[in-house]
Structures are given as C-alpha cells and as structure tokens.
Amino acid sequence: MDRDFSIREIGPDEFERAWPIFREVLARGESYNYAADLNLDGARAMWTSPPYRMFLAEADGGEALGCYKLGPNQRGRGDHVANASYMVAEAAWGQGVGTALCEHSLTQARKAGFLAMQFNYVVSTNAAAVHLWSKHGFAIVGRVPEAFRHPTLGLVDIYVMHRML
Amino acid sequence: MDRDFSIREIGPDEFERAWPIFREVLARGESYNYAADLNLDGARAMWTSPPYRMFLAEADGGEALGCYKLGPNQRGRGDHVANASYMVAEAAWGQGVGTALCEHSLTQARKAGFLAMQFNYVVSTNAAAVHLWSKHGFAIVGRVPEAFRHPTLGLVDIYVMHRML
User: Fold this and answer.
1) What's the domain range around B99?
2) What's the CA gap between A113 and A66, in Å, rounded?
3) Residues B51-82: tens digit of each pLDDT
4) B132 lies in a domain?
C-alpha cells in the first residue's frame, strides 16, 4: 500500500463517515447511476441493509479514504455470485486505495462463500475502474449500448464485468 | 392472438390474481432467481411498488394467463433504459400470451419515454424465452458464466439481452 491505512467492516451507525465520499461521487456523476438527490438515509440503506455489508478504508489518523459494499448480485438461485461497489475519496486518488479495496473485497467474498464476482454497471468511459478491474482478473462479459447518461459525454456504454473467485 | 384475452395495468390490490402464476414459476425454479420461499407480500412489493408497474393478461372469463412488470432498469443516470419481467401460466403456454405480453410491454415502455429495454438475467437454458426475445428484436449483449443454479442442470450461464425502442 502506498499510504498507511486499514480496512474494516462498518455498520449503519458509522455510515456518515463515508458520506463525504458519496457526495463527491454524486457531484461528479461520472461513475454511478445513483440519483443526484440521493440523501444520506437513502445511501445508508442501500449500502448497509442486509444482505449488504459495508467496509471502510481509513488512514491512520481516522480520515475516511474509501469504501465498498459487498453482497449477492442476485437473490435466490443467483446468490452464489457476489457484487461489490467501490468509492475512493478524491483526496486519496492514486494512493493504492482502490487496489486495496478490490483485493480486500475479493478475499471477503471468498470467505463469505461466493463463487464469483460480477459488476453490472461499469461505465465504459471510467478508464481507471476498467483498468483496475481488468488487472484484478475481471473480464468484460457484456456491453450494453448507451445505458449511462454521462454528464459531459452523453449516452455511453456500460460493461458487465465478471471473474470467478 | 391465439386466444381471446386482454392486458391491463393492475395495482397491488389485485396482485393476488397473479399469485398462482408466481407459485408455478417458483416451483419450477428454472427461469427466475427468486428465493423459493418468496411469499405473496414479498412478490407484491417487488412487482407493484413504484417505480414498477404491473400488467395482467386475462382471458375473457377472467382467468389470469400471464403478467409482466415494467420499470427502470437502473435509477438515476441509467433510468432511460427499461426493464421488464414476464410470467405465463402453464395452462396458457403456447397460446401467444408471451408474445402479446412482450409486444404490450414494448409499447408501454415507449409510451413511458424509455429509450431502450434491457433484461439482466435471461437463463441461457430457457430456450423459449431466448427465442421469444430474439424474435422481438433483443440481442444478447452479455453472457455471464454459471450465474444461475438450475434445479436440474446445475450452474448455467445467463444472458443480458437488450434492444433500443
């Protein structure tokens, strides 16, 4: 890791620590399909309500650097495949946080018994994310044309990415 | 249409009319990722809570022949793409109900302003569905390996299917 930080699971009571990162992501609008007016309670419910689990990356001083959520990609007969979503605070970009979150999530997903991990909605113009997932063994298994309204690029494709665990 | 029936939108108060069809689908377990113990209230919430809308195909005598739900495939910056799910009662198979539901849903999706329709989870071994969607202009834009636990075939692939509207 390029910076001293640790990753731990958090519950709904600590969700607010990650909220500033959400606000950055919502303001950019370039990588998530969340509504621009998603509020703290809505975000907390999405990220911490079972079966979803949330993990936070913190600097030694306590600063929130990034977070991810982990859960089944589908219920029922599809719940052996995990899904995860990741965010990194802008102030922590380029410091290995995304890589550490991705590796941590793969380990946690294996521990939880998932057989694979799938991302349903990787914005194709989000080169940093596509590169990061590819480096960690994810393949593009689907491409949906014009499924994301990018704030500056207009309608862009999204990728479905997947790897076995 | 091969049989006289009509399709209309219904609300949560009429959901129970479709429940026998759900029970057949859950018992077969071959096409949906729903938990086998999904109950009436859970199914009603999934199919009739906004932004989802539910439509029912009924024979002239009132018998429920099939149903579909329509809504955005994603929230926020992905909500210009529709998603729909369909069920046909076993007693009504081969009578054009699936075709009619599909055509009805495409019309409703266009009316609602959607620009495209996407299915995230078409079980690859569900040949009747894959054939029906293909005939109605849907292309396979993704294939996720082993994402569905088929009750008799084991782990089988799922397709992501898509068409512009």
Assistant:
1) 5-116
2) 24
3) 999 999 999 888 999 999 999 999 999 999 99
4) no
